[in-house]
Amino acid sequence: MSVLVDLQDGIAIITLNRPEAMNAVDPQTRTELREAWQRIAHDGTVRCAILTGAGSTAFCAGSDLKKTMPPAESFAQLAFNGTGSGQESMTAGMDMDTPIVCAINGHAFGGGLELALACDIRLASAQAEFALPEVRLGTLPASGGTQRLPRLVSPSDAMKLLLTGNRFDATEALRMGVVSEVLAPADLMPRAMAMAQRIAQNAPLSVRAIKRLVRTGLEMPLDKALQAEYHVFGLLRDTEDRLEGRRAFQEKRAPVYRGR
């Protein structure tokens, strides 16, 4: 299997499993990854997901150029004939309400960095390196790189990275805000698991509502985003979990959330 899915007490660990190819994404990996996201998005028992790569060298080196050949069809055929499923973005299926923590255990180049950018929280090994080198190959980061990166870092930093294709290390990634934390390699997955477990302990409807509000709100004027926030607050107000959270606080015990 090119993508491993391991379910542990409400946490789904998705591992890109091609260490011999720096976990580069070939057509099979793309299909398996999309299937994994679909499975997680529709599994109400999954409270949080972790995305990482196998081995200690690379998180993901992007598309496997040796195995990803140009399609025989024209772009218009793929766009308008309904035959373009194989040409979907590498991040297809990641737009879900379930939070995704990315444990970047090594090189994150091209589509690999774009996968990380599509996650909600990014943690990096101190040995990780990053780059969006597509401009050097006559193309561009087409799985969200030109759009997600400028939403995370300053426009100047985004343009520098996109237009030069230069590599940058974990320290620079932390400075710019590409990642939230940099850890020793041995501490990366334990930290990712601890964070996912902490998220999983919270009320699942609240967690998913917050993620949806943050992501959609970034595209709205502030007044409209505040209206959406108030509406979703109202939806959560009378849920069993909100009442359970208050009872647990009063009774000085851990809450038992059921997602309803």
Please explain how this structure is put together.
The protein has 260 residues and is an alpha/beta fold. Helix content is 43%, strand content 16%. It has ten helices and ten strands. The chain has helices at 27-41, 75-80, 111-117, 145-152, 155-164, 170-176, 185-200, 204-217, 222-237, 240-251, and strands spanning 3-8, 11-16, 48-53, 58-60, 100-104, 107-109, 121-125, 129-131, 168-169, 181-183. Strand 2, helix 1 (27-41) and strand 3 form a beta-alpha-beta unit. Helix 8 packs antiparallel against helix 9.
List the SSEs and their pairings.
Blueprint: E1 3-8, E2 11-16, H1 27-41, E3 48-53, E4 58-60, H2 75-80, E5 100-104, E6 107-109, H3 111-117, E7 121-125, E8 129-131, H4 145-152, H5 155-164, E9 168-169, H6 170-176, E10 181-183, H7 185-200, H8 204-217, H9 222-237, H10 240-251
Keywords, please?
six-stranded mixed β-sheet; alpha/beta; 43% helix; globular; four-stranded mixed β-sheet; 10 strands
Gist of the model:
The protein is of the alpha/beta class and 260 residues long. The protein is 43% helix and 16% strand.
How many strands, which pairing sense, and closed or not: the largest β-sheet?
A: 6 strands, mixed
Which class do the helix and strand fractions yield? alpha/beta
Series of secondary-structure elements, N-terminal to C-terminal: EEHEEHEEHEEHHEHEHHHH
If helices are DSSP runs of H or I spanning 4 or more residues, what is the number of helices?
A: 10
Strand content: 15-25%
How many angstroms does the end-to-end distance come to? 35 Å
| Mean of pLDDT | 92
Number of strands: 10
Low-confidence stretches: none
Strand line-up in the sheet with most strands? 1-2-3-5-7-10
State the shape.
globular
Specify Rg, calculated over alpha carbons: 19 Å
- Tell me the helix content: 40-55%
